[in-house]
Amino acid sequence: MTIEVVRTKIHRVTVTEANLDYIGSITIDEDLIDAVGLVEGEKVQVLNIHNGERLETYVIKGERGSGVICLNGPAAHKAEVGHIVIIVSYARMGIEEARAFRPSIVFPDERTNRLRP
Predict the structure, then answer these.
(1) Cα–Cα distance list, 58 to 18, 26, 49, 70, 95 (Å)
(2) Which one of 10, 57, 70, 105 has the fewest beta carbons within 10 angstroms of its own beta carbon?
(3) Domains of the chain, each with CATH number or no CATH
(4) Per-residue pLDDT for 7 more than 90?
(5) What pLDDT, in 10s, does the model give residues 11-68?
(6) Cβ distance 86 to 9 under 8 Å?
């Protein structure tokens, strides 16, 4: 038996852009992607603190150091610029492996979306 557990979490970042004219996804500053170990194209869940919306999409690398968090395509309807979101990825693993597993979590500065020193 396997279960699904949190693998990575970017906790409380601010949406900087919402681009309806794109095919889909979330663009994330490459520094944040690297900090938690996300992979470009990986499925993530985006949890909107402001309106309770939850959506699934995939990761696109944004400019390193830019602080960009951009919801693209249909996802742009689920959040507005300035909304605070949490970005989570999950992994399937056996129960014993899950008990020992520790997710990679970062708490960036909400105003800049940059990693704290």
Answers:
(1) 15, 6, 19, 12, 26
(2) 105
(3) 2-95 (2.40.40.20)
(4) yes
(5) 999 999 999 998 779 999 999 999 999 999 999 999 999 999 999 999 999 999 999 9
(6) yes
Residue-level pLDDT at 117: 83
Catalytic residue among 58, 66, 90, 104: 58
Q: At a CB cut-off of 8 Å and minimum separation 6, what does 15 contact?
A: 69, 70, 71, 79, 80, 81, 82, 83, 84, 85
Provide the mean pLDDT of the chain.
Answer: 97
90 catalytically annotated: no
pTM score, whole prediction: 0.96
Name the token pair of 11: 């906790």
- Specify whether the CB–CB gap between 88 and 8 falls below 8 A: yes
Residue 54 forms beta bridges with which residues? 47
